[in-house]
Amino acid sequence: MAHSDSIVDFLLKEPDRTLSGGELGRRIGISRTAVWKNVQALQKEGYKIEVRKGRGYKLNALTSTPVAREIKRGLSTKILGRTSFYYEEVESTNNIAKELAREGSAEGTLVIAGVQTKGRGRLDRAWESPVGGIYLSLILRPGIHPSSIARLTLLSGLAVVRAVKSLYDLKVWLKWPNDLVISDTKLGGILSEMEGEAENVNFVVIGIGINANRNVTVDIPSTSIKAEIGREVDIIGLVQEILKELERLYLEFLEGSTTFLDEYKKSSNTLGRAVEIQGRDKTITGRALDIDSDGALLLQMSDGTIEKVLSGDCIHLS
Ligand code: BT5
């Protein structure tokens, strides 16, 4: 355990006491100066540690920054987020997660950042990632056929819907294939990426971006949870809840369950609408009829035929 982790744990165990540097140092086996250096680092991470001259340290509040030790505290999952890495600033959490996955990092490894300087959407579009948002990526090793990965995008969206509903009683809708929206304004998005061979997936990285405490200005209408509920979001609590819900859904998915699909459909704001799907090669228009177990959108065309679409940008026309 890192010394800073021990300092937080000792201060947290005795919230009403002021613990001297000497006492903390003795308990952990480091010098008073080392204690002081660690306290300074913790303060920088956002921990409200009061320094009482000549007496010692008192913890007034934990940090709201999603550092690994706080994500882990009270985390109820068995796989997701058991190993986690927090960065104040990165280019893209998906890029780091992919590197870690290539080096063999365990399933469930979480990469989370305060800011992304090159956050990515699909097709290398930019994802605005200022401080105050949630930017996380998870490594999964589901051992599935590449064609099933679209389902993981749906599952991840559903996990966010469940988590935001349970913590904030706020309804998030899922715009096929990967948007999280509230009243047709974008709250977040999912970016699933995989590496593997034709028949087998080596790993999948699920990237989730959510405007939690910060609104962004982009080329489409967007919103944040804070703007919707009128108060600050507990980012650590929300991340833990998303991990809990996603793990539940993921384990069911691995057992072959497709029950999530009905729940997904109930949260879809695409179904039943006239839509335009802009694919790589063509754009088609039709009515969004259904979503199948592969995560594909079934479109009813004007001549009554059904087209199955696996990916593309979806524009709601009605
Ligand atoms: C997405 O792409 O919606 C997937 C976004 C995934 C972001 C996460 S953050 C953690 C992980 N690390 C990464 O680098 N990425 C993932 P797409 O459907 O292509 O939507 C991109 C479009 O959304 C942009 O072209 C803008 O129009 C809009 N946009 C950009 N930033 C936004 C934001 N913060 N909030 C709402 N809309 C945004």
Features:
318 residues, alpha+beta, seven-stranded mixed sheet, 14 strands, binds biotinyl-5-AMP
Descriptive account of the structure:
About 30% of the residues lie in helices and about 25% in strands. The strands form three sheets. The chain has a seven-stranded mixed beta sheet with strand order 3-4-5-9-8-7-6, with helices on both faces. The chain starts with a helix and ends with a strand. The protein has about 325 residues and is α+β, with helices and mostly antiparallel strands. The chain binds biotinyl-5-AMP. Biotinyl-5-AMP binds next to helix 5, strand 5, strand 8 and strand 9.
Query: Which residues form runs of ≥5 with pLDDT under 50?
Result: none
Percent of residues in helices comes to: 25-40%
What's the mean pLDDT score?
96
Secondary-structure-based class equals alpha+beta
